[in-house]
Amino acid sequence: MRSRVWGGTAAVVLGALLVTGCGGGAKEDAADTGAGATGSGAHPVTVTDCAGAATTFAKAPKRIVTSNAAGLELLLRLGAGDRVIGTGFPPGKGTLPGALDAQARKVEVLSRSVIPKEKLLVSGADLYLDTFADMGAMGGGGMGDAPTEDEFKAAGIQHIYLKSTACAARSKKPVTDLSGVESDITTLGAVTGTSARAKELVAGMREKTDAVGKAIGNTPPSSRPSYFFFDYDAGTKQPTVVCDRQVANAVITLAGARNAFADCAGDYRQVGWEDVIAKNPDWIQLGVRDRGSAAANEKAFGEAEQWLKANPATKGLKAVKAGHFLRIGSERTTIAGVENADTVREIARTLYPGKVA
Asked: How many distinct structural domains can be found in the chain?
C-alpha cells in the first residue's frame, strides 16, 4: 500500500475536532463556544481530547510544535506562525499560498515524517498541536514512539488535537458540514489569543459554503451526482474509501454531491473494487497528496487518471468513460483546514457549471 502523504512525505491520514464531538462537560462547552473568543485572547481556556480529557491554558502558548502541515497552516493563517518553533510533515515548497509559504519555510523541520519522541520532548515547546491523535494500533502510542501524556507533562508540553480530523472515527453521527473544522479554528484561536482572526477565517469559510448552498439548494438529493474519492496514495490493490465521519464527506455533501461510500460508518474503510463498480460513480476525485511542486502534483494526477483508464476493473466506470475527473489535492479535502471551503466551491463549480459563481 502506498503511504498517505502530507507535504510530499508519507503519513497516515487521520480523522479531527479541537473542541466539539468527542468529549463533554461544562469546560468543553466553554471552549466550544470560543470562551473569550471576542477579544485578543481571554484565558484560561480549556479544551478536550478525543476521550474528553481536559487541558487548560492559563495563558497563550509561546513555543508551538505542530505534528504536520495542517496544524502549521492553521497557525500561520491565525497569525500565530511566529510562535511555531518546529513541525513534522512539513508542507512542500510553494504549496501554501502567498506569504504563508515564505513563513512556513522559516519553521524548523523536526522531521519529514513523525517527529521522534526524544526530539519532540527536548524541543523546548510549550504546546504540541497534534493532527495524528488517537488511532489505536496505528497512532497515538503506536504511531512511531509517541510520548505519553505523563512524558509531555514532565517536559512542560501541553498536548492538544485537531479534533475534526483526529477524532473522526469516534464521531457518533455522520459529518455533513464543516462545523467541526470551524470549531477547531475557533478554539485554536482562543488558545493562541487570536480569536478575532479565527472569527474572520470562519466567516470567510461560511460565506463560500453558504453561497454554494444557495446556488444548488433546489437540486433534489436524487438528482445530485454520485462522487468517489479515489485515494490513489493509499494504494490501488484494495481501495481505501472515505466514509460518513470523515471531513471529506462534509466537503462532498456541501458541494452538492453524494459520497459514494456515505453508507459506511467511520472515517476510512478498505473495500473491494467490486464495491466501487457497484457504486458506478458519476464523478471521481483523484486523491493525490502534495508532492512538493505543481509539476510533480500534475504528474501524480495524471498517473492516477491513467490507472483508472487502464485497469480492467475501473475502465468501464461511468465517470471514467465520461472523463469526469477532478484534480483536487487530498489534504484540502480530507484534513481540517480553511481550504475545505474552497474545495466545496471547486467541486460544486465542476458539477454545476453555470450555477456556482
From this structure: 2
Q: Looking at the structure, do residues 40 and 93 belong to the same domain, yes or no? A: yes
The mean pLDDT value of the chain amounts to 86
CA proximity to 214, closest of 350, 352, 343, 340: 352
Judge whether 209 lies within some domain: no
Angle (deg, nearest 10), helices 247-254 and 195-216: 50
pLDDT (0 to 100) of residue 27: 33
Question: Going by C-beta distance under 8 Å and a sequence separation of 6 or more, which residues neighbour residue 339?
Answer: 332
Residues 178 and 226 in one domain: no
Is it true that the peptide bond before 61 is cis, omega within 30 degrees of 0? no
Say how far residue 14 (Cα) sits from the centre of its chain.
Answer: 8
- pLDDT of residue 19 exceeding 90, the answer is no
Mean pLDDT along residues 102-110:
95
Q: Which of 79, 118, 76, 122 has the alpha carbon at shortest distance from 100?
A: 76
Does residue 40 carry a pLDDT above 80? Answer: no
Residue 273 and residue 164 share a domain = no
Q: Is the pLDDT of residue 262 over 60?
A: yes
- pLDDT at residue 29, rounded to an integer: 34
More reliable by pLDDT, 27 or 357 = 357
Q: Are residues 133 and 76 in the same domain?
A: yes
**Which phi and psi angles does 117 have, rounded to 5°?**
-50, -50
| Distance, C-alpha 139 to centroid of its chain | 16
Q: Are residues 69 and 21 in the same domain?
A: yes
